Amino acid sequence: MTAVPAPVHPAPPLTLARQVLHSLFIALVDAYAASVLLLLAGNVLIGEQWVVIAFFNTFAHLLWLPALALLPVCLLLRQGRSVLLLLPIVLTFALTYGGQFWPRSPAAPAGSQPLSLLTFNLLADGSPVTARMAIIRAAAADVVALQEYSPTAHAALPAALADLYPYMALHPQPRATAGQAVLSRYPIVADDYWRYDWLHIPLGHQRVVLDVAGTPVTLYNVHPTHPGMTGRGFFDPSDRGREIADLLQRIDQEQGPLLLAGDFNMPDASRDYRQITTRLDDAYRAAGWGMGWSFPQIPLLRLDYVFFNRHFVAQSAQVWPTGGGSDHFPVRVVLALRPSGG
Predict the structure, then answer these.
(1) For residue 9, what pLDDT is reported?
(2) Is the domain covering 106-341 a CATH 3.60.10.10 domain?
(3) Which residues have C-beta within 8 Å of that of residue 301, sequence separation ≥ 6?
(4) Using CA atoms, how far apart are residues 21 and 9, in angstroms rounded to an integer?
(5) Per-residue pLDDT at 70
(6) Domain boundary assignment for the chain
């Protein structure tokens, strides 16, 4: 007897659609993971010599974040290849940022002097700075480092905040974005301001020395150029790198307690950030919680920092919840100055 083959029934349309969507989802996940892994490899092997790598480093944390959600989904779907592709990205994010989500309570050394500092890019747009001055007053930091200190700010701020800050080193500039200022409850015993005039649009830098309860503390208040301000195309971080290299040469000559604060126009995945943190510690990484995003105009970017040397211990760090009309949120840190700067 000849066997009659069983009839072949086509898959129901709904099942077929699910299969297609499943295959498309896995293909997109694998393409995403392979692309990010290629960038990670390029960063290790080539670095920011290639502008495309420098550009993607600006948003590296955003490229890594989807992997945190995709990995458990692929585990549930038992997609072993996808899991293997995603796992290095998740590990990179965890190693880079995981410590910032761990509770920390750094102990202040016995006999140390507390010192709070606020860094704030005021935005030199010519608008009234009343709300921004209210933030400075509410933050009540011992020292305030201001960038983009404009003639508009200069007309209002010194008189309005003189009761809190008897010592001020103010450098408003005709090009308002280049203005810098430091306000202090401690005496300012030295003050220097400069620009790198070889830049297409030079911003300002400032160095002050504070007398903190008898200990000289050097503060650099800096504002390196943005990679989009070079006049040589959409994105070029080389000028910022030259500025930071010069700043680090200056810092290498300093003795004693030192702080470096400002709007750096750089992400914490960049080569420039790594150059700084080979010498100094990042206060937010040491004592803050979360990602520390301080630039709401392009959400989820961190551009504002306070760095410190071995004479300090970071106690706390926070991004202020509003900018009062500025395009940056200020960053407030509390540090403990070791006894005798030791």
Answers:
(1) 59
(2) yes
(3) 58, 59, 267, 293, 294, 295
(4) 21
(5) 97
(6) 14-100, 106-341
